[in-house]
Each structure stands twice: as C-alpha cells, then as structure tokens.
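Below is a filled-in request sheet from our internal design queue. Each sheet records the structural input a requester submitted and the sequence that came back. We keep these sheets so that new team members can see what a complete request looks like end to end.

REQUESTER: design group, bay 2
PRIORITY: normal
MODE: inverse folding
CHAIN LENGTH: 370
BACKBONE (tokenized):
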C-alpha cells in the first residue's frame, strides 16, 4: 500500500488530539440525530448531559475515531498523567447537607445519559479518568443503548461503579462494544461496566481490572432487581483481574443471566474467587473459563461460590490444569485436551454461536461473532 495512501487514510480516520475544550455548537434541540467527529464535540456531549440534557429519544453517532490524549505512553498514566482529564458522561451523586438529631438528610443528584450512542465502528482512545468519586468510565451513569463502539488505550480510575465503558449501566443494551486498557476502582468494578442491570451482547474486554469487591473482567456486578434483569450473552474477557472479595475473570458477582460467554484472564483475590465468576446467585449456561485462579477461601475453577445454592450453572466448564483448581458442582473441570474438543461441550451450538479450530483462540472454543 503506497505511503501517501496510508497518510491520507490516517488523516481521514483520526482527528487531532483533544484540545481540552468542549464544543456544543453542533447541538440543536429541535433535531434528534447528531454525528460528531471531534474530541471537542464529544466533550460537548459530556457537558450537555452533565448539565441536565439527558438526550432521551436522541441518537449520537461517531463519524471518526476520537483521541482524547496522545496514547503513546498510556500504560504509564498511573505514574505520569496525560494532558487531558476526562469527565464521564452522566453522573449520580448523593449530597449530604447535615442532620436533624440522629437523622441525616441530603439530596440525590443525577444526570444520566438516556439516549442512543452509536460508535458506528469507530473508537474513542486515550480516555483518562482519575477521580475519587464513583461513576467512572467514558460514561459515568447511563440508561441507554450503546453500540458499535471501542474504547482503547485508556486508563479509568474511580471509586465505586467504575468501568471502562460505563461506570453504572442501569438499563438498556450494550452491543458490539469493547474496552482495552486499565480499570481501577473500589466496589463494583468491571472492564466494560462496573454495575449492569441491562443487556450486554457481543462485547468484550481486555487489559487489567483491579478493585476491592465485586470485581469482574467484563462486569463487576450483574444485577437483577424486581423485573430488571442483567443479561449477558456472546461476550468474553481476557482481562487480568485482581480484587479482595467476589472476584471473577468475567463477572465479580452475578444475579442475572449469562449465556455463551468465556474468560481467559488470570484471576486473584482473597475470598469468593472464580475463573469465570466470583459469586453466583443467577443463571450461567454454556460458558467456560481457562484462567489461572489464586486466593485463600471459596475458590473455584469456574465459580468461587454458588451462594446458598441459589445459582444455576449449566453446561459450564473450566480447565483444571490452567486454573489450578479441581472443585466440582460449580462448573465441570476438564483437562486442557478435553477443553479443546467439541465433544466436551454438552448442548452447545457449534453451528451458529460457537466455533472450534486448533488455529483460533489457542484451540479453545471461540464465539463466531468475534
């Protein structure tokens, strides 16, 4: 490919690095669909949402890759911060005003993103979030449809509800999205989203995820409250995950429904630690894990704990050799050779959902949507 063509392709595909300012001139209240192409316009979206414009019924599309910081040394941002600090799109916070006798009183303040965000196959790179507040991510708080978006070479650090794409995903659908980078938080920490009550489909995470409790490679806490069901399918994580309690290669604590997914990252913690899931109270079917597992109590090659036997773990497998675990009843342990054979996986769909090939994914099953 000629050098000139490569240069033109690069110029056309990548906008310049963010100048730190927010551009809101593209927004018109009378319109319902917008295409943004610059970092300044993306910052303008954050500004509009955080000031109360929830974008309900409106769609944002990316028309180019967006770079918020030069990503040349993004792996060292824990020691040397980049030029631009990102303020997540959407937030929720409790402001305490005081007390009347023993009773505290205050106010819940929240401005979520309620619209549709279509990455259109483009990426947002160089996201740098470093805050002591909860709700950290490219999006802090969202009840939305987010699709076709990659967040790459990024460093996300917050308190509770911290994720690479969304800190707190209260409802909606995340589809065909991925995160690659570092995520650090406290409670409810995940590579893609810290807390999820919506649907996550055809998505993945890779990199490093570190937290304290409810820490997962893809999702920290997959929740079910009343009729709201956290569902995840056709997704995976290769992230290395570290935490204290309820730590999993794919999900830290699970109360919803997961199907046709896998994890392969190293997992370490203190208690309730599993190759795929830390603690399980929901349903997991047709999934597997091959990551090494280390901890002190309630460990599992696939799941650390099936809480009060309330969880359903069906047709799920883990590698005994890779995980270093040999527990039963929370997923079936298999040898490495068995994990690479189609016959091992009972009632799995190898026509539409899964593929298996010695030259793909190390010979382990891979999702056809990958």
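RETURNED SEQUENCE:
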């Amino acid at each position: 490919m000629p050098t000139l063509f490569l240069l033109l392709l690069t110029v056309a595909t990548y906008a310049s690095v963010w100048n730190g300012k927010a551009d809101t001139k593209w927004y018109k209240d009378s319109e319902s669909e917008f295409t943004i192409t610059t970092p300044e316009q993306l910052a303008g979206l954050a500004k509009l949402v955080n000031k109360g414009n929830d974008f309900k019924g409106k769609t944002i599309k990316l028309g180019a890759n967006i770079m918020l910081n030069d990503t040349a040394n993004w792996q060292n941002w824990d020691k040397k911060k980049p030029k631009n600090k990102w303020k997540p799109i959407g937030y929720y916070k409790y402001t305490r005003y005081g007390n009347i006798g023993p009773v505290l009183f205050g106010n819940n303040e929240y401005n979520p993103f309620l619209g549709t965000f279509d990455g259109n196959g483009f990426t947002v790179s160089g996201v740098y979030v470093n805050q002591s507040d909860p709700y950290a991510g490219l999006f802090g708080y969202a009840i939305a449809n987010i699709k076709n978006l990659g967040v790459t070479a990024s460093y996300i650090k917050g308190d509770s509800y911290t994720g690479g794409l969304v800190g707190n995903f209260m409802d909606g659908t995340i589809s065909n999205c991925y995160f690659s980078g570092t995520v650090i938080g406290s409670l409810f920490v995940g590579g893609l989203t810290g807390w999820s009550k919506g649907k996550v489909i055809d998505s993945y995470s890779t990199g490093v995820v570190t937290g304290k409790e409810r820490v997962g490679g893809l999702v920290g806490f997959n929740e079910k409250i009343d009729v709201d069901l956290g569902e995840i399918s056709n997704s995976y994580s290769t992230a290395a995950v570290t935490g204290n309690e309820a730590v999993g290669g794919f999900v830290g604590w699970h109360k919803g429904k997961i199907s046709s997914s896998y994890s392969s990252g190293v997992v370490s913690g203190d208690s309730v630690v599993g190759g795929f899931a830390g603690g399980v109270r929901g349903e997991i079917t047709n999934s597997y894990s091959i990551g090494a597992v280390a901890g002190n109590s309630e460990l599992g090659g696939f799941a650390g704990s099936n809480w009060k036997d309330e969880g359903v773990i069906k047709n799920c497998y883990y590698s005994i050799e890779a995980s270093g675990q040999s527990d039963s009843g929370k997923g079936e342990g298999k040898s490495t050779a068995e994990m690479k054979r189609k016959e091992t996986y009972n009632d799995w769909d190898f026509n539409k959902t899964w593929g298996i090939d010695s030259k793909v994914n190390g010979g382990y099953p891979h999702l056809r949507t990958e």
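SHEET NOTES:
- The chain has four helices and 39 strands.
- The two ends are 26 Å apart (CA to CA).
FILED BY: M.R.
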